[in-house]
């Protein structure tokens, strides 16, 4: 149970509430949504299972896992990509977590008196709603310190409590907000953009949205960074991996789609469009709308408080990757490892917090590519190094349906999905005329 909570806590985060609406808006709305959902089912679920199999089989962090299971140091070196990915992820995630934390801390004051306007960096610009200022640096550091404290204290209890509060609270708040958003002027245009799917648009945009859709699917499911490998090292042999992977994907997708039902109607009612809303979308729509709500201050505080929890249960899973690597492989003490990695991210994150262009690159293409490459590595490992052992692990603790699915699954993760991911990677890098 602790494991499932931790994995759901890692998956559900800013990827669902902040990144999903923004990336969906930038890629044309409904056509993107459909491709994204298909990738979650066809790549996401089998992909989670790949990381689970590696983690439970080895009982280790990604570096140790690849080395032990293959008996070769070279695979251990390949696994170190995860460490880099963890640091890159946290370097921008902590900045966004900082913006959220700032809205949480200051919404009581600001929304009650001044409205959300003081937060809007440069109204109408791409980064409307967020600010690349020294305040952003301060809140980034504060968010990182919170993350480090939880990881330092031993993450198990923290995650369990956090997730038990966060999941019901976030569902309740999002449902309430979605109902309220549906009553706002121009909400219909938001639904239209988000949900009205037509084949012609899909066909015209298919190859353009493939890369971003795959990137978003991996990001939101915490895939390709080794998080699921690490967490799965704690799964008992009696649990069904396919069942757990599906549960995580369903819950995570539900929160994402629901967040869209809040953000899009509000975006269209506040700004009249979604296309150029960018990373500030959540802040513009939600904070702007809260200011108009009766008891908006209170709801804003509750909302940003819950989102802060969701962000923390994800950021600790990012920090845990390099920390468990340093502790397991080099026998660092936990405090030193946490302090060292957090110290590094104070610097890298602060640069992101001040440089919009760099931030945009790290939060988008860089992280997308790292996660894609990471997942390709894990899945090729499952297919070509573990092979039948992977099938064995896949079946352990699950029923007859899993037995039937295990062989097709191995083919998918060993061949089809890596091919597909290489293709999306090349197309998002703009290579090969794709
Ligand atoms: N899945 C998390 C979210 O949606 C982000 C994440 C990515 C966490 C990769 C860990 C590893 O916010
Ligand atoms: Na997510």
Automatic annotation (TrEMBL):
Keyword Nucleus: no
Major site of localization recorded for this protein: membrane
GO cellular component, one term: membrane
InterPro entries named in the record: Na/ntran_symport, SNS_sf, YocR/YhdH-like
Pfam families linked to this entry: SNF
Keyword Transmembrane helix: yes
Membrane protein topology class: Multi-pass membrane protein
Annotated compartments: Membrane
Alphabetical keyword list: Membrane, Transmembrane, Transmembrane helix, Transport
NCBIfam families according to UniProt: Na_transp
Protein known as: Neurotransmitter:Na+ symporter, NSS family
